[in-house]
Amino acid sequence: MSSSTTQWPARTAAGTAWVLGLCLIVAVLEGVDLQSTGVAAPRMAREFGLSVSQMGLAFSAGMFGLLPGAMLGGRLADLLGRKRVLLLSMIAFGVFSLLTAQVSTFPMLLAARLLTGLGLGGAMPNLIALSAEAVAPRQRNTAVSVMYCGMPLGGALAALIGVLAAGDMGWRHIFYAGGLGPLVVAPLILLWLPESAAFAAEASRTRSPDGPVPTLRVLFGEGRAAPTLQIWLSFFCTLIVLYFLLNWLPSLIVSRGLSRSQAGITQIFFNLGSVIGVLAIGMLMDRLRPTRVVTAVYAGIAISLFMLAGAGSMVWLSISVLLAGMGVVGAQSMLYALSAASYATAMRGTGVGAAVAVGRVGSIVGPLAAGQLLAGGASAATVIGASVPVTVVAAIAAMAALRRAHTQ
After folding, report:
1. Is the Cβ–Cβ distance between 363 and 242 less than 8 Å?
2. Which residue in 215, 230, 242, 291 has a CA-CA distance of 20 to 30 Å to 166?
3. Using one digit for the tens of pLDDT, what is the confidence trace for 116-133?
4. What is the mean pLDDT of residues 155-181?
């Protein structure tokens, strides 16, 4: 049997650990690339002479690519299989990350990040589907969280590379690491990652002579309109806050008088907090009443933002950033699991891909809005405080989607 169709026996302990471990590795590589622009931003701004508004465009360029990438990657996952689309996505974001390290002008930088985003966007729906389908439904939140903790680990690795890469030209090393990693790992995924057994079984059982179910029917047919829109709204608002922090946090900390190395250290705290939050929240969602967990998570995000807005010393900044990472990245992982649970296997890639894509709109809006506020003279504390109402909207939408999912 070829490597592209190899499958583990359904949900064995060895098969589950193998799938989640490989997906974790890919998620680490995604995390490196997603946070590379934010880590490199201060030195990139000096080399290219970028204004605050141009930095916001640089942050958002990759997000523009993530949106169609997630939609296309999710749809193709239901048509071609999760593994094939994941491999193509890895190769794409690896190649274009390497090209980012070679740019010499601002337009080239924007183009390279846009194309990198296409690959990154296509990978995530497939990672979520592979993780969710490797376990029983009662373990889905934990499985997705195990995979997704690779994202903040990768972000911490990117921040560490940024700290170690001395000199104004050292920012390019972050993109070299982000590009070489997926190209080295792709052959291992080809040989050793099994296709989802649940997807293969469902595809053979439900193949229709009329072709695949149209995307709009997947998202809005048979009573799925309300939960789809609620998940989308929560994704959108949560990622506004997340990507504002991911992209602007180092620059905001430097603007308070701290050094670039101190800013890099606080970003490592953000990502370490994210790992703790993702794993803890995923396990709690599978063991406690989910509505209570969701309420506590979003309340924790709001509290951490208030702390971050008022923090002045390195100690308080580190604590605030740690708590913010626990909450906001944990919330994103929680939403990934919720979106996976809201769609049947045959349409899960399409549903999750659409949710990820809508969330990416928030990841575009967040950095751009923060850039405009800062360019208009707003303080760092004002910009951070403006994220609190957005967090409240995300919480309300997530609660509505979760209640509907548990009443069906």
Report:
1. yes
2. 242
3. 999 999 999 999 999 999
4. 83
Q: Cα dist. 134→113, 226, 341 in Å?
A: 32, 27, 13
pLDDT on residue 385: 86
**CATH 1.20.1250.20 is held by the domain 13-201+213-407:** yes
Do the beta carbons of residue 194 and residue 1 sit within 8 Å?
Answer: no
Domain ranges, ordered by start, for the chain = 13-201+213-407
The confidence score (pLDDT) of residue 246 equals 75
Structure confidence at residue 166 (pLDDT): 66
Q: Which residue from 335, 12, 287, 401 is spatially nearest to 144, judged by alpha carbons?
A: 335
Closest CA to 113 of 165, 186, 36, 48: 36
Per-residue b or e along 12-36, where b marks 16 or more CB atoms closer than 10 Å to that residue's CB: eeebbebbbebbbbbbbbbbbbbbb
Q: Give the start-end residues of each E strand in 81-192.
A: none
User: What's the burial of 294, exposed, middle or buried (CB within 10 Å: 0-12/13-18/19+)?
Assistant: buried
Beta carbons of 73 and 118 less than 8 angstroms apart: no
